[in-house]
Design a protein that fits this description.
There is one protein chain. It contains 5 helices and 5 strands. With 184 residues, the protein is of the alpha/beta class. Strand 4 and strand 5 form a beta hairpin.
């Protein structure tokens, strides 16, 4: 049976997580290896740890351990590309309904879009600010965080961590309580 929404080896999901971090789309490397944010220049794992989501920095090849801390990872568009710039607004719009059903199915408390492009294209909203949006997507509260890609030179690691810490403070959950109950 095929899934009613795009899935892939890049998905790190289970029901009722506190936060699901949503990348634009998987890299070719993530699709091949099944591990997210594996590029040496990507700052996701450092930012998530320094912001307090995990007690230590997780290696990309251990990305599924993120579930232990009440967090997951998915992508707005399932098509792997060498560069996220290869995914246009029309492709984000076409994936919106199925992606929203996917989020509704997994029921995270918060979905954190990594960058503005996907959420803007999916909703038609413009001029969004970083942070909580006061809206829901698939019944999850929406946050927009800067994209941790090493190509995003507008944000230093320190600035990324500030934004991720704001989300961490907002969710307020003792995320480490998931460590003893997580399953794959």
């Amino acid at each position: 049976m095929t899934s009613p929404w795009p899935t892939g080896s890049y998905d790190i999901l289970q029901k009722d997580l506190v936060v699901v971090f949503c990348g634009l789309n998987p890299s070719v490397e993530a699709a091949k290896t099944g591990h997210n944010f594996g590029s040496a220049s990507n700052r996701f794992w450092r930012a998530v740890h320094l912001a307090g989501f995990t007690p230590h920095r997780i290696a990309a090849e251990d990305d599924r351990t993120l579930l232990r801390y009440g967090c997951g990872v998915t992508a707005a568009v399932g098509r792997p590309t060498r560069s996220a710039g290869e995914v246009g607004h029309a492709e984000f719009r076409r994936s919106a309904a199925a992606f929203e059903r996917k989020i509704a199915h997994y029921r995270p408390q918060t979905i954190a879009f990594l960058g503005k492009a996907a959420y803007e294209a999916m909703t038609g909203l413009r001029n969004l600010e970083w942070g909580g949006q006061g809206e829901e997507f698939g019944s999850a509260r929406v946050w927009i965080l800067p994209n941790p890609s090493g190509l995003n030179r507008a944000f230093t690691l320190e600035k990324l961590v500030e934004h991720y810490q704001a989300l961490r403070a907002d969710v307020g959950e003792p995320l480490f309580r998931f460590a003893s109950s997580a399953h794959r």
